[in-house]
Design a protein that fits this description.
Blueprint (H helix, E strand, L loop, with lengths): L3 H10 L5 H11 L2 H6 L2 H7 L6 H8 L2 H18 L3 E4 L22 E5 L8 E5 L5 H13 L5 E4 L4 H11 L4 E4 L12 H9 L3 E4 L12 H11 L2 E5 L6 H9 L5 E4 L11 H8 L1
Parallel strand pairs: 3-4, 3-7, 4-5, 5-6, 7-8
Antiparallel strand pairs: 1-2, 2-6
Helix pairs in contact: 1-2, 1-6, 7-8, 7-12, 10-11
Length: 279
Amino acid sequence: MPSPAVFALALLRLDGVGRVTAHRILEHFGSAETLRETPREQVRLRLRGVPRADETVAKLFGSDLDDALAEAARQSAALEAKRIALLARGDERWPARLDDLPPAQRPAVLWAYGHTDALAPGLALLGRAGLAVPAFEAATDLAKRMADGGLATLMTDGFDLAVQKPAMGARGRIVAVAPCGLARLTPSLRPGATALVNAGGCLVSPWPMGHGPFEHDEREAAFVAAALGAAVVGAGVAPDAPEAIALVWAAEHRPTFALHSGPETIPVREAATIAEALA
């Protein structure tokens, strides 16, 4: 029986099936076996409102899905040999906090390199390069204070690498969300990625291996990083930054704070105060 991740990846390989439609199929049926044991009319009913639903149902019950499942299984096996796991909802290693995301932002598949048991960090820390010195120092202070519970960040140059180092120095486990497919990490990011995995962390991406990098994906990466944390903090995040949008979403779902500055709806606190509140 195909794993949940293989099934999810196969759905995404079908023409006309995007992330939102894949989520609907996965939520209603869960597996290829359950899908095909369901009468076609019931499947069509569950896909009401989906563009070209009749064509999609035909593909789900035909050779299109069979071929996609076979190719997804081959891809999964090849990635596992490289220590890259494919995770999807229904997999025991799937980070359940991602289910809080709306379907348009929630990955159907997560590509994970490293230690998947680190995928439940206590804090997501979001920021950008170019922070004022006081905000940067507060962020690194908070990273050290919260290291024991694990830390989620983005995997970018500047701010993220800078806060990962003190957290790892305090024996914290890092989950870093790549802004592209894992095979597309820039050379400057690869040493940091290797270091965090060697320290017990995990590098993840919501995109296929060869995807990007594209500037328009920064927002989704910020949402994934925010969703992974039990709490979320933004460090000097500008109101129009992708991280600010993720902070506003996070404030509706988990404890969320800002260091020094942030969206006006997010409470601003000092590092020590945040650490005490989350202890």
